[in-house]
Amino acid sequence: MQKETREKIGLLLGLVGVICFSLTLPSTRIAVEYFGTTVVGLGRTVVAAILVAIVLIVRKEKLPSPRQFISLLIVAVGAVLGFPLLTSWAMESLPVSHGAVELALLPLATAGFAMFRAGEVPSLKFWISSIIGSFAVIMYALHLGFEQLQFTDLALLVAVIILGLSYGEGGKLAKELGSWQVIAWSIMIGAPFFIIPVGLNLTTEMLHAPLQAWVSFIYLAVVSQFLAYVAWYSGMAMGGIARVSQIQYLQPFLMILFAAVFLHESITLFTIVIAVIVVFSVILGKNAPVEKKGTVTENRIVLNEEVVIDKDRG
């Protein structure tokens, strides 16, 4: 497969992942009202683990190596434990639009960790596009009056940081372990520790929750916690972590759109204007060059972080 075609497929898969993730906060907001933070935040992983275990057994997947296990542990802490639990807690009191704005900082966190963990070096054009997108969402937050941070705001910011690390680590590991295998093994690592706290928080009243609450919870467990990550990590592995992460700038506005459709939250003209600016930054960023260690320069060749001098040039 040609590099250009591979990158395009990677961007498309990244977009599919982002669309799926954009329904996460609206679904969480609906589910926590009836099931609570612990059941929604951790219970989704327990349910997803059943599906994942079946897939791993049927495919007879090999166990990860000790080195890969360490990376999987990082992914599990961010994508399986921290982010679901923190966002579930925040969505008990915050509107989806509020959470969507703060999660818009995720591309910067992902790109930053990508440089350190995957060896990607975004260009100046890439960072300019990131700054444009981040500035746009910050202005959006100020316009909506979110200047005073609360504990729930801090929870979302921490969620952004740990998920950014998880994305960067998972995107790197996906190239050797496989895209869906990364989140699958991460779920299997985390699920056993969640069974007891989830079980202690189950109540008979939950059985009488409305259909929309059950649909939201099942979506979180099957799609948000597993299938969306398959598309997302596949996209990052094929298109590059830093470049594909730019698509995340669309996520907050997709979240707001879904919140308007399913939760009847309003969409203002200012939101639409900011969305246009953010889309522009995505277009700018996805076309920006992203260097990786192991590229050819004018005077030297860098391979596996070792410098080999071109003898013809002395």
Write up what this structure looks like:
It is a single chain. The protein is mainly α. It has one domain. Helices cover 74% and strands 4% of the residues. Helix 4 packs across helix 9. The longest helix is centred in the last third of the chain and has 29 residues.
State the share of residues found in helices, binned by percent. Answer: over 70%
| Count of folded domains | 1
- The SS-based structural class is mainly alpha
Strand order of the largest sheet: 1-2
Separation of termini? 36 Å
Number of strands: 4
Major β-sheet profile: 2 strands, antiparallel
H/E element sequence: HHHHHHEHHHHHHHEEE
Low-confidence stretches: 295-314
What global shape is seen? Answer: globular
Strand content: under 5%
Radius of gyration: 20 Å
Mean pLDDT: 82
SS field, number of helical segments: 13
Organism: Neobacillus pocheonensis
Protein name: DMT family transporter
Keywords: Membrane, Transmembrane, Transmembrane helix
Subcellular location: Endomembrane system
